[in-house]
Amino acid sequence: MFDNTKVLQCIHFFYYRDSEKVVRTVKDYEIDYYLSGSRTMNINGKEFPVGKGSVVIRRPGEVVFSYGESYDCYILSLDFSGKIDIPEGEYIRQRTGSVQQKFDNPVMNMLPSIIRPSHDVDYMRIFEKLCRNSYPNPICKAAQNRLVSELMYVLAADSIRQSDNLSSTAKSAVDIATEYIQENFRRKITLKKLSDVTNLSPNYFARLFKAETGVTPTEYLIRIRFENARVLLGETDYPIKTVASLCGFSDESFFTYSFRKRFLKTPLEYRKFYMSKM
To answer: Which UniProt keywords are listed (predicted)?
Structure first.
């Protein structure tokens, strides 16, 4: 699947000073494996923390820059198009010329921009061998192709593991949050409070919650409050004001307005309708 891939460059790169934000458009496929350092990588306007053990994947046409402290990494540039005629010894990432055409490959397409491998042994071995089989050493194209193929499949396996872990994190966080909401819906619950109980940042928690449930945390809280309100309206004779208070609504008028908007009946009308069906 990767037999025709050309290694444009593979080197062990050291950068021993803090860098400025140099914005560039990626021309080729780039895969970097970080051995040390702590940086922020911006890819098409989205920022990712990068540090020891991170693999960064950039694709042709992406607008990128990074900033942070000094770092140490392997850098690999690949030609999947077979149309780039630049000797390895003359290649630079900031090259002029056209952007490499998209490589439509199921393995490459599934890879995220950042992968955090579960272990480093395979990556160290593959990159070390790629460096030994790349400029300025004698170049063995067959060895390069085998190593690139192995690298891509190791990346694919780790990306699946990473996705599964993120799904587990999301499910765990959502389970914790929904249980908290169901037990505390009568109280004031903020996004900050929910993020605190799940140990996640508010924005990240909100994205995970909606991805897992299809609704925002606020909408989920409102649903729980109204479901409990319907139970109280149908099974008790509590005054509407008391039902509203017991379900987390501090204002009876707002509760009545919102209930009617959602169920097309006022709370009192709903109670009468419920009682008529018994």
So the answer is: DNA-binding, Transcription, Transcription regulation
